[in-house]
Amino acid sequence: MTAIGLRPATSADSEYCFQLHKAAMGAYITAVWGWDEQTQRDLHTGAFNPDRWQIITTGGTKVGILHVECRPTEIYLARIELHPDHQGRGIGSRLIRTLLHQARQQGQDLTLDVLAVNQRAQTLYRRLGLHEISHHGENDIKIRMSTKPPQPGPIHRS
């Protein structure tokens, strides 16, 4: 099994993170909003925070990014993106299992949001034990998923 490493992002990683986002999420973003390079660069500039983001590595090679927020009642997986060349190798599953273990140890839920068009990610999250909690965003483009058991009745849409 390949060792997975995490290191803090630095300001020098900004362009790598943008290009990774484009490679990993570009098709989904295009499907929902259309890809506008300048808009996406502006959004990246506003979101990129080297104090909170981590670079995922395998064998010393950068393969993805991770952003986790430890909140009072939950661990929120704000972003996990792997370059398409490294997807399907168990890297994301191993990292998420680590977060699931951490959440259980702390008596918290692991929660995340995923684009409704990203069926591949939803399948992974369900396989790892997360449940659909709600749909939100304009035209319900996002799905909130959590280890919290779903409430009986229809999925809440906001």
From TrEMBL:
Entry keyword Membrane: no
Alphabetized Pfam families for the sequence: Acetyltransf_1
Keywords: Acyltransferase, Transferase
Domain called N-acetyltransferase: residue spans: 4-150
GO molecular function: acyltransferase activity
EC number(s) per entry: 2.3.1.-
PANTHER family: AMINOALKYLPHOSPHONATE N-ACETYLTRANSFERASE-RELATED-RELATED
Name this protein carries in UniProt: GNAT family N-acetyltransferase
Phylogenetic classification of the source organism: Bacteria, Bacillati, Actinomycetota, Actinomycetes, Kitasatosporales
